[in-house]
Amino acid sequence: MKAIVHSSTGGPEVLRLVERPVPEPGPGEVRVEVRVSGVNPTDWKSRSGALAPGVTEQVPNQDGAGVIDAVGPGVDPGRIGERVWVWEAAWRRAGGTAQEYTVLPARQAVALPPGASFDLGASLGIPALTAHRTLTVAEGGPARLAPGALAGRTVLVAGGAGAVGNAAVQLAVWAGATVVTTVSGPRKAELAHAAGAHHVVDYRAQDAVAVIRSVAPGGADIVVEVAPAQNAVLDHAVAAPDAVIAFYADSGGPAVGFPVREAMTANLRWQGVLVYTVPAAAKDHAVAAVRAAVADGALRVGEQAGLPLHRFPLAATGAAHTAVEQGAVGKVLIDVAGPADGGLPG
Asked: E strands along the chain, which residues?
């Protein structure tokens, strides 16, 4: 089978296209014939940073979608032929999704509903599971999203045109929240509207605090934050009492400064989110909720959903990584095996 590998860290030039034996699933595992691999910032950062412990040759990329074609001992043989999306395929493991077949624990291959495309499946994983966590860490909030779970709450999503931001907007709308998002220009505003945000604020062209306060006078109960260092003052200015600011990235700087007395008075909470290390129960809730949202048609991809797709062949995985590193707006996908979706909608 064809696979992309790297045995050292560095830039995209360390990635090589090779032939490898098709792996066999072990106990509790499934083998997935990968159709589409999704690329996230963590993929190029991992390639640049360090190999997993004990790994000498790494296949990159955490997310993907395809078809289960073999199962190991202890796994229901009825799962063979099941269309699935996979998550954390390369977390502390050598076998990511940038290859024609990958083996992973059965719980990390989640059934796709009949109408859901492989493109959608490959776009879930890290973005959707991260978004779910940010939306479920509020005081007194739900542990698992569902329709109505965030009714009466206002959610502010910083960067609603990004992959996590897009998922957060769609999940929050599905859960019944009023969703406000900030963007950096008209094009991204169009995408955030397409994702379903109720209010979109261009922080470069508008007084973001004034506009957010005008549409959400009581403030935001949950802030989904991609650039805490850059947005801390704004977040505090628009946060409701007892709000949580859930941050999942360090865009804009590595350290945060905010007015302490103001935060104390409002009982604000900062909550870090790293999808790989969230508690197991929270991960299970996230997977179940994302699966339900997909079944309800509440999670979508493509231009019409505010997440344009950028496609690369497997041999151009390095270019796909570069596109993400350079800030491609939308979702970067790699076509691993032939036509990805057979005409299914995103």
From this structure: 2-5, 16-19, 29-39, 63-71, 83-86, 101-105, 109-111, 154-158, 178-183, 199-202, 220-225, 239-247, 269-272, 309-313, 331-335
pLDDT in tens, 304-343: 999 999 999 999 999 999 999 999 999 999 999 854 444 4
pTM of the model: 0.96
For domain 2-123+301-335, is the CATH number 3.40.50.150? no
- pLDDT 10s digits, 160-211: 999 999 999 999 999 999 999 999 999 999 999 999 999 999 999 999 999 9
CA distance 292 to 139: 23
What does the domain layout of the chain look like in residue ranges?
2-123+301-335, 130-276
Residue pair 162/226 in contact (Cβ under 8 Å)? The answer is yes
Among the listed residues 52, 140, 57, 119, the one whose alpha carbon sits nearest the alpha carbon of residue 88: 52
- Beta bridge pairs of residue 271: 246
| Spatial distance between the Cα atoms of 181 and 206, rounded to a whole number of angstroms | 13
Q: 212 vs 126, 182, 191, 215, CA distance in Å?
A: 28, 9, 18, 5
Q: How many residues does the chain have?
A: 346
CATH of region 130-276: 3.40.50.720
